[in-house]
C-alpha cells in the first residue's frame, strides 16, 4: 500500500481521528515519534503501553485547547493542578483499552479500506485538483516528524476504534415524558415589561477623595498591573515570501496543464437511473405505460425499488456504468428522458436520464495564468518545506536563530518587548510579528533560553522563536496610574449606584405597585418583550436577564446588568405561555440531541468498563516527569 501511496494511486487521511471520552481532542500518532529524553512508560493496560512521549504530546495539546478556550496562557504546572494530567491519562488508557478489545474481537481493517478513505480526503490533494498529491504527503509528514508507516498504522487503529464506538449509542429511544419536558424547556414563551436604568436615574456620583482613590488602588492592584513582557527573536517562513523569485517556463506550464487534464477537460456527465425487468415482454409493457403517461418513479415503485431500481448518480460515458449496452443507451439520448427497453449483459432494462452536464474543455491559453500561479505557489511551499528542514537541522546543532538567519539568508524578527496580546509597552500592536494567537501563546509558553518547538501558523506557514529575556508583571506606581484609578473608581461607584436604584424599583413592584406606576414615577420608558424563549438574547435583555426571567413567578420582578455595567434592565413577568406538542421536525431535533448526548455517555461507560476489565499499572513518577515544566519536549511536532 505504501508503494502505491508513493506512486499516487492511493491517498491518505490528513485528519486525525477525534476520540471522544468526555471531551474531544486530537492525538497525533503513537509510534515512530522522536521522544527526546522521555523514554519511560507512564502506564500499562493489558499488553498496551502508554509512553511518556505520547503522554506529554497529548498533555501539551490539551493545554493548547484550554488556552484557545479561555484566551490565556496556561503553564504545564497550572494544568497539572487543574487535573489535566489525570484526564489525559484516562483518555490514553481508554484508547488503549479499545485497541485491546478490538484485538480480542479480531477486528481488522484492510489496506484498501484505509486507502479508500484516504483517497477522498481533500486536504492533501493538489492545488485546484481532486487528485492525491504525493508531495503534500511528504511535506506534512516531514513537518509532523512521523514516518509514513507509523501514520498509516495510526489511521488503521483509529478506524478500528471507530468500528467499536460507532456501534454504541445507535437506535436510542427517547421516552415521551422526557421529550415533553425538553420541548417545554426549549419552547416555553414568556412575556415581560421592562425599563432601562441609567446613571442619570441613579444620581450624580460625588468626587472621590484621595484616600478613597488610594484605598481603591490597593484593593484592586491587579487592574493596575503591567503585564509580563518578553524579548524574542523569530524567523517566519511563509510561501508568499518566496513567490517573487520563482520563475516558471512555458514548458513547465504545458507539463502541469497536461498532468491536470481531468481538471481542465471534464467529459460529459449524465444522471442515470434504470429499472430492470424479468424479460423483454415485461419491459415492453412497461415502456408502453411510460409513453401513456405513467411516471418513471411510479413504475419503479410498482416493480420494487429495492430489487429492480438502480441509481447510478452523475456518471461519465466511460467507467460510470458497468453494462456497456446500458451506458450506450443512456448516452444516446439527445435530451433527458427514458429509453426504449435495452437488452443488457445481465438483464433487460429501461433507462432514464434526468440531467445532462455538458463536457467542459479549458484550453491551455485560457488557464495559463492560473496554472502559472499554482506552480509558483507549489514551488514556494516546497521552498518553505526545504528551508524548514534545514533550520531544524541547524537548531539541532545548537545554532541560534540569529546565526541561522545569517547562514540561511532569512529575515530575523527581533522584538525587545511584547505582551501576551502581541503589543508593545506603549499599547501598539507589533506589526512585524505574525497576527496569530497560536504564535503568541507559544511565545508565552516557552522557557527563556530554551529551544521552543516550531509553530504551525496555518496555510503552509511556520515560525521559529526564541525567548531571550522576560520582564515580570509588576504593579504600576499610583502616581503613574492616578487617572486610571479615578476612572475605575467612578465606574465602580456608578455600577453600585445603578444596582441600588434598580433594587429599589424591584422591591416596589414585588410589594404590589404596578410596573406602569413604578416606571411613571421614575420617568422611565416601558418596553415590552412578548416572545422570549430561553435561548432569546437582545441588547436590552442579555443572557443573564433571560435566565432570570425564566425563574420568576407571575408578576414578580428582577434586574440584570447590561453590557458595560453602568446600566441595568428591570423587568417584571406578565405572562407564561406553555408550548404546543412538538411538531415532527421539533421532535426529531430534540430526539437527535438527546440521542447524541446519551450515546456519548454510553461510550464513556463502555470505556470505563473496558479499563476495569484489564490490568492497569500507573507510573506516577513517569507522569510527574512528563508534566515537569523544565522537562524536554516530546519531540518535533509536540506542543
The third-level CATH topology of the largest domain is: Triger factor/SurA peptide-binding fold
Helical amount: 40-55%
Gyration radius, rounded:
33 Å
Superfamily (CATH H level) name of the largest domain:
Porin chaperone SurA, peptide-binding domain
Number of strands: 22
Principal-axes shape call: extended
**Could you state the oligomeric state of the chains shown?**
single chain
Mean pLDDT: 84
Tell me the distance between the termini. 31 Å
Give the uncertain stretches in residue-range form: 1-37, 632-639
Main structural class: alpha+beta
Please, how many domains? 4
Q: What's the total helix number?
A: 24
CATH architecture of the largest domain, please? Orthogonal Bundle
Please describe the biggest sheet, giving its number of strands, its sense, and whether it closes into a barrel.
5 strands, antiparallel
The CATH top-level class label of the largest domain: Mainly Alpha
Which percent band covers the strand fraction?
15-25%
Amino acid at each position: 500500500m505504501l508503494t502505491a501511496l508513493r506512486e499516487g494511486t492511493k491517498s491518505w487521511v490528513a485528519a486525525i481521528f477525534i476520540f471522544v471520552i468526555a471531551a474531544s481532542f486530537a492525538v497525533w500518532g503513537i509510534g515512530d515519534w522522536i521522544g527526546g529524553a522521555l523514554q519511560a512508560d507512564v502506564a500499562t493496560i493489558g499488553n498496551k503501553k502508554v509512553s511518556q512521549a505520547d503522554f506529554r504530546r497529548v498533555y501539551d495539546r490539551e493545554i493548547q485547547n484550554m488556552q484557545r478556550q479561555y484566551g490565556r496562557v496556561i503553564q504545564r504546572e497550572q494544568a497539572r493542578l487543574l487535573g489535566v494530567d489525570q484526564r489525559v491519562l484516562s483518555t490514553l488508557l481508554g484508547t488503549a483499552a479499545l485497541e485491546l478489545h478490538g484485538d480480542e474481537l479480531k477486528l481488522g481493517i484492510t489496506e484498501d479500506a484505509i486507502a479508500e478513505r484516504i483517497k477522498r480526503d481533500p486536504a492533501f490533494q493538489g492545488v485546484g485538483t481532486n487528485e492525491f498529491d504525493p508531495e503534500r504527503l511528504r511535506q506534512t509528514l516531514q513537518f509532523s516528524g512521523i514516518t509514513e508507516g507509523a501514520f498509516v498504522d495510526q489511521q488503521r487503529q483509529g478506524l478500528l476504534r471507530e468500528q467499536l464506538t460507532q456501534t454504541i449509542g445507535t437506535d436510542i429511544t427517547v421516552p415521551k415524558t422526557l421529550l415533553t419536558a425538553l420541548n417545554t424547556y426549549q419552547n416555553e414563551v414568556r412575556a415581560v415589561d421592562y425599563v432601562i436604568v441609567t446613571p442619570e436615574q441613579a444620581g450624580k456620583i460625588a468626587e472621590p477623595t484621595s484616600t478613597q482613590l488610594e484605598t481603591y488602588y490597593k484593593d484592586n492592584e491587579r487592574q493596575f498591573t503591567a503585564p509580563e513582557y518578553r524579548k524574542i527573536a523569530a524567523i517566519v517562513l511563509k510561501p508568499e515570501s518566496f513567490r517573487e523569485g520563482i520563475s516558471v517556463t512555458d514548458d513547465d506550464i504545458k507539463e502541469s496543464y497536461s498532468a491536470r487534464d481531468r481538471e481542465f477537460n471534464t467529459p460529459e456527465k449524465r444522471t442515470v437511473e434504470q429499472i430492470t425487468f424479468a424479460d423483454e415482454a415485461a419491459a415492453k409493457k412497461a415502456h408502453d405505460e411510460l409513453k401513456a403517461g405513467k411516471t418513471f418513479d411510479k413504475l419503479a415503485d410498482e416493480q420494487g425499488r429495492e430489487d429492480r431500481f438502480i441509481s447510478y448518480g452523475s456518471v461519465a460515458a466511460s467507467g460510470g456504468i458497468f453494462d456497456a449496452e446500458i451506458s450506450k443507451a443512456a448516452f444516446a439520448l439527445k435530451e433527458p428522458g427514458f429509453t426504449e427497453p435495452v437488452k443488457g449483459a445481465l438483464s433487460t432494462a429501461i433507462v432514464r436520464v434526468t440531467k445532462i452536464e455538458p463536457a467542459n474543455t479549458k484550453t491551455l491559453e485560457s488557464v495559463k495564468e492560473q496554472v502559472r500561479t499554482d506552480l509558483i505557489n507549489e514551488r514556494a511551499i516546497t521552498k518553505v518545506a526545504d528551508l524548514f528542514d534545514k533550520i531544524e537541522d541547524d537548531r539541532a546543532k545548537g545554532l541560534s536563530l540569529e546565526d541561522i538567519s545569517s547562514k540561511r539568508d532569512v529575515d530575523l524578527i527581533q522584538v525587545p518587548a511584547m505582551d501576551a496580546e502581541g503589543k508593545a509597552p506603549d499599547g501598539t500592536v507589533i506589526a512585524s510579528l505574525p497576527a496569530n494567537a497560536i504564535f503568541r501563546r507559544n511565545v508565552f509558553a516557552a522557557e527563556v533560553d530554551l529551544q521552543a518547538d516550531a509553530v504551525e501558523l496555518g496555510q503552509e506557514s511556520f515560525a521559529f522563536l526564541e525567548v531571550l529575556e522576560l520582564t515580570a508583571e509588576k504593579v504600576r506606581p499610583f502616581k503613574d496610574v492616578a487617572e486610571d484609578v479615578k476612572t475605575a473608581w467612578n465606574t465602580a461607584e456608578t455600577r453600585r449606584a445603578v444596582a441600588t436604584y434598580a433594587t429599589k424599583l424591584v422591591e416596589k413592584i414585588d410589594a404590589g405597585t404596578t410596573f406602569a406606576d413604578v416606571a411613571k414615577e421614575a420617568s422611565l420608558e416601558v418596553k415590552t418583550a412578548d416572545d422570549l424563549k430561553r435561548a432569546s438574547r437582545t441588547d436590552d435583555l442579555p443572557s443573564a436577564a433571560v435566565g432570570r426571567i425564566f425563574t420568576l413567578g407571575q408578576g414578580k420582578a428582577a434586574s440584570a446588568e447590561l453590557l458595560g455595567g453602568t446600566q441595568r434592565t428591570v423587568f417584571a413577568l406578565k405572562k407564561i405561555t406553555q408550548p404546543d406538542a412538538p411538531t415532527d421536525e421539533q421532535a426529531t431535533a430534540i430526539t437527535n440531541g438527546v440521542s447524541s448526548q446519551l450515546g456519548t455517555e454510553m461510550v464513556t461507560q463502555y470505556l470505563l468498563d473496558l479499563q476495569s476489565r484489564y490490568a492497569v499499572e500507573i507510573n506516577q513518577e513517569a507522569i510527574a516527569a512528563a508534566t515537569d515544566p523544565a522537562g524536554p519536549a516530546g519531540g518535533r511536532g509536540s506542543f
